[in-house]
Write a structure and sequence with these properties.
Shape: globular
Structural class: alpha/beta
Strand content: 15-25%
Distance between the termini: 7 Å
Helix content: 40-55%
Largest sheet: 7 strands, mixed
Oligomer: single chain
Order of helices and strands: HHHEHEHHHHEHHEEEE
């Protein structure tokens, strides 16, 4: 059975799960599945998690990244020709649901430079000086990123940046999985499987 949000919190509190030396024996990506209709409630609870896990009893400094928000920030910082912001350029060009714009966004979302952008955010977080333990990266917003970037595409391309000895990734996935086959929103099947560990209530 899939974990509830509270069971996920209890998992985060588990000292053995916080130990990266244990997790490094396996792939360090964990999938938390939830119904797509709970999307914004999950976002709210992620913010609550961050506060609760910083308490002295846990001492965890969780990095939370909304992959859609980071994609927008990446495009906003990227110049295009004489335009200082590729995002603003695309917004001005957008007319309805333009196939050309959609293809451009898919290309940009799958560009190695975007994965480097995410990697740099994680590195900056890990290098930040404070007394808290930095063990987890929460990735969410994949429902918002559809159809520009699928979860399997992100994880496959991010694998070469991923360092399991320093942190664990918790992917919040709006859908369900059977073995290693995932269905976004419970309807759209991913083209390929990818290595990950499903968080279940065993």
């Amino acid at each position: 059975m899939n974990m509830t949000v509270e069971e996920l919190y209890q998992k985060m509190e588990d000292k053995s799960f916080q130990d990266n030396s244990v997790g490094s024996m396996f792939y360090n990506v964990y999938i938390f599945q939830y119904p797509a209709e709970d999307e914004y409630e999950i976002y709210r609870q992620i913010d609550e998690f961050k506060v609760r896990l910083k308490r002295p009893s846990n001492n965890l400094d969780i990095l939370t990244l909304n992959i859609f928000d980071e994609f927008c920030a990446y495009l906003d910082k990227k110049p295009f020709g004489k335009n200082p912001s590729y995002l603003q350029y695309l917004l001005k060009k957008e007319i309805g649901n333009s196939p050309a714009i959609q293809e451009t966004l898919i290309r940009q979302a799958c560009d190695e430079k975007f994965f480097e952008w995410i990697d740099n955010l994680i590195r900056e977080h890990l290098n930040k000086e404070n007394e808290l333990t930095k063990s987890f990266v929460y990735l969410y917003g994949f429902g918002q990123m559809y159809p520009y970037l699928r979860t399997n595409t992100f994880l496959s391309n991010f694998e070469r940046f991923n360092n399991g000895e320093h942190y664990k990734i918790i992917v919040f996935y709006p859908g369900h999985a059977q073995k290693n086959s995932f269905s976004l929103f419970g309807v759209l099947k991913d083209d390929h499987t990818y290595r990950s560990i499903n968080l279940i209530n065993a």
